Amino acid sequence: AETSITDHDSIILILEMKPVALKIPSTLERIDYNALDSAMSVLNLLPVFSTSDVHLATSFLINTLNIAITANTKIIKISNRKTIKKPWITPGILRCLRNRDKLHQKLKRNPNCVIIKTTYNRYRNYCGKILKKLKNDHEKEQLSSAAKSGNKKLWQTIQTITHTHKRKDKALSLLTNCDPEIAINNVNSYFINIGKDLAEKTLASRP
To answer: Which superkingdom is the protein from (predicted)?
Structure first.
């Protein structure tokens, strides 16, 4: 809101937003359907049919099924080799990369074999071209989608793709004083001197 003391808007609230890192699951749940089928065949569902309370019967049935499913579900750890860490990498490309790595290990064991060396080089270049194309297509799709959402979203996407997020100076240092008049003077002083400070830094950085 504008005040009679300064021509700048007052800062009412500052929210510090920390970037959220992409969490890649290291485990997955897998149901053994054959074992579950056997467990389901011996379930005692008599209480479901013997009660006249619909809610009680439904609750019992759901709980019984959940217990059977949980008992026949295994937690499987995903190895790093099978973990997809980039959004543009498909399971097929992951297999391609594993084959490339196997050829590389084979070449290390037989460094003088021309056939293995030629095969590895061609396969490596082939995988590299596919990866580059998939990455470019993914980024083009991101840019195209962001362009429809406005310039702000587009610029954020460009910064994400190019890893050029600019660090923003915190404004808290201008508002730490409990005296409102001093805090406002600090804000005014910052905006008055920002041009001069930048010019001095630019001149000082010249050889």
So the answer is: Eukaryota
Query: What domain range is 183 assigned to?
Result: 172-205
Cβ contacts of residue 149 below 8 Å, gap of 6+?
none
- Name the pTM for this structure: 0.44
Between the alpha carbon of residue 153 and those of residues 142, 150, 159, 161, the distances in Å are 10, 6, 10, 12
What is the tens place of the pLDDT at every residue in 76-118? 887 766 667 778 888 888 888 889 999 999 999 999 999 999 9
CA distances from 119 to 87, 95, 107, 159 (A): 28, 17, 9, 38
DSSP type of residue 195? H
**Three state DSSP letters for 10-61:** CCCCCCCCCCCCCCCCCEEEEECHHHHHHHHHCCCCHHHHHCCCHHHHHHHH
Distance CA 190, CA 58 (A): 66
- Counting the structural domains of the chain, the total is 3
